[in-house]
Amino acid sequence: MRAASGQPLARDAMAYVLAGGRGSRLKELTDNRAKPAVYFGGKARIIDFALSNAINSGIRRIGVATQYKAHSLIRHMQRAWNFMRPERNESFDILPASQRVSETQWYEGTADAVYQNIDIIAAHAPKYMVILAGDHIYKMDYELMLQQHVNSGADVTVGCLVVPRMDATGFGVMHVDETDRITAFIEKPADPPGIPGQPHMALASMGIYVFETKFLFEQLRRDAADPNSQRDFGGDIIPYLVKHGKAQAHRFTASCIRAADEIEEYWRDVGTIDAYFDANLDLTDTVPKLDLYDRDWPIWSDAVVAAPAKFVHDEEGRRGSAICSLISNDCIVSGATARRSLLMTGVKMGSFSSCNEAVILPQCNIGRGAELSRVIIDAGVRIPEGLVVGQDPVEDALRFHRSSNGVCLITKPMIDRLIN
Asked: Among 111, 236, 355, 377, which is least packed by CB within 10 angstroms?
């Protein structure tokens, strides 16, 4: 199915990314930045995946709603996503909560974050709206979801993951019939419904929705007039349409982008310390589950102007080396060793230091002789010389945030307390 002009449906669509959440389960990583702004995979931010999917799908009108501690997120988007051109009918709108409806009202929910900007969306005149969460790691062609939406005649199409049934208790779950029409939407059920023909599997919402724009505006206005609404897509808009309209499930398997060596449909909610750590380390595998080197579906981000990575010293016991690791620009590994780790832009490792299974955010400095294992180090942290982390669980938990899986999050205030 294509638009009447013969162009892909994506050319008549606008992607609207909901990026206002804090992501409190990431603990101190989101003390000063929104979850979508958290660094991921060496060079990118989490939000770059949803935005890249939109661009790669052919969508050229994008809006991003921000709210919680949005400065670093807005700054990143201004630097990395400023290539859209109005003369080509392209647009990129950053839409902070700015009390546009009321002088006392910020965005009160995901639906309200769209409702408050109806006039801005209408000025771009998209025929379709693709509503996206800005905090997941995946590659997906939204054009295929748009095609299913139009062909099915649905009022709303909901992107869904097929997951083991009892793994779906933390999601919004779709109960569907044999045609994947949604017959019930249940938020975080204790006993999720199975899929027809697959009773041990469930359909979990990805937080991706497709609407015709005119119809979406009607629903947002109806919802805004309801004093009992929480102004939320998952809590209000979708359940209403399941009951009073036609809601269709779109399975991620139908539009997931996989490079030649990718063996699974990769989607991750990196909303906890352990999930964030594991998803980053997935990239260090010889054949990674998510291929960042796929030139056919690139993950766009800020093109940082920086020197190449450098490895120095070649003496026994003092050799700059990295094994199964991602090393970004402006890193210097000076007589140190990185194993199964990610060093993001500007990380410096001093002689005789080592990191094993480490996610090190930009501009960190690892002191001489430090030994770090299973750590996440926040941006700009200076690790003292000789610090050992990952060998004594009790001591680690006293000094840092230690997750249930034994991953230590290290931030600047934690180091300041340690050395003062």
From this structure: 236
